[in-house]
Amino acid sequence: xxTVIGLEIHNxxxxxxxxxCACPTKGYRTAPANSLICPSCLxxxxxxxxxxxxxxxxxxxxIALALNCKIILDKPVFVQRKHYIYPDLASGYQRTSKxxxxxxxxxxxKIREVHVEEDPGQYDLRTGEVNYxxxxxxxxxxxxxxxxxSADHARRFLEELSAILDYLGARxxxxxxxxxxxxxxxxxxxxxxxxxxxxFKGVLTALTFEEARQKNLVKHGAQYGQExxxxxxxxxxxxxxxxxxxxxxxxxxPDPDVPPMxxxxxxxxxxxxxxxxxxxxxxxxxxxxxNVTGEEAFxxxxxxxxxDAFEEIAKDGGAKQAANFMRGVVKKQxxxxxxxxxxxxxxxxxxxxxxxxLEKKEITEKVAEKLLIDFxxxxxxxxxxxxxxGLLGIHGSQELEAIVERVISENKKPVEDFRKGKAEALHFxxxxxxxxxxxxxxxxxxxxxxxxxxx
Length: 455
Fold this sequence. Notes:
Blueprint: E1 3-12, H1 54-66, E2 70-71, E3 76-77, E4 79-83, E5 93-97, E6 101-106, E7 109-118, E8 122-123, E9 130-131, E10 138-144, H2 151-168, E11 178-186, E12 192-197, H3 200-219, E13 227-232, E14 237-243, E15 253-254, E16 261-262, H4 265-273, H5 279-290, H6 294-300, H7 304-314, H8 319-336, H9 348-359, H10 365-378, H11 382-389, H12 398-410, H13 412-419, H14 424-436, H15 443-454
Parallel strand pairs: 12-13
Antiparallel strand pairs: 1-10, 1-11, 2-6, 3-16, 4-5, 4-15, 6-7, 7-10, 8-9, 11-12, 13-14
């Protein structure tokens, strides 16, 4: 059974004011409820939109160009009213533009269209309260073709897209700024829409659950129709909301209060010339110039600040070691804490210090990870911490040789087993040495010393 998935990605745009008025967007999450609003936000009688936010439109153009879209040039682009009834819409409709860019492509996935729209307010299902501070915040909507065949494929695509949006500086990056609606079906069966998935982890969980649910229905011959489902993040399941609307149900028509936009070629070329080096270009350069693997480059370049940090470290030499360490140990610990590099305490100086100790064989990678954890969680300086805890390594010293001799003399049976050809006995002996050195010795060096001594 083939799974078919398409995505609609909504991300709040970087902008000081809302899409159709001058109300501020900064701090809308923490401000008192309904304090960052005006008559236009609430569609009060007699109020009109102020005209569309030029900066928001410019950011959508950046995004469309970065996604290799064809820009709609020198033709009126109308803002439409999309009608639906829900408490978060004071007007009963959402303003959303016709496509500004279309027929793009990213990582082998076709981008059907890119357009700008306004965010609705926030409705709390538990209390029934509505907060309109978010109402009117500018959004970009990116619609893909149903080119995904698995949840993991969708997650990896979203990582790449998120990196592009960050490099462009075109979007807000706070938690909750990106939301995903997913259309998923088993080929030949009804399409289900899963609404408001708020994280990459959520996309993977929601689509994995929904794929299994639909395959189970198909396997048992159950009859079901198109519907919209809600993703319950706490339980990791989807819940039925309502019958899926069709395009006709939204009763789209041009908003008579918003003049159409006309985008000229000069503006588009100006924005195109100002585009930065994008993640794919940076990855290709890193692989070519620093001789790192594609996987290392992918992981490092997902965040611009992280890629910049790697390049600053790599220009002084040791690019391969830096890439391996930053893709492995550092990325692992940041991901575990759900931390972006820019939000952590890490600096180029800190990573360089750990790499320098590794290169001089003062510490093992295991110790380097412990020092990194202590730095992230407690702010402890790596070198001072290593000295205080006695973690600086034992490498080729008389102390290490003495420990190897002790392990050999105290473990006669494993020694004999190794000499009889049982390779796993060497792992046991090496483990005993590492235990006595408290992990301070290099595992490779320990094995080499044991083999040399035993042979």
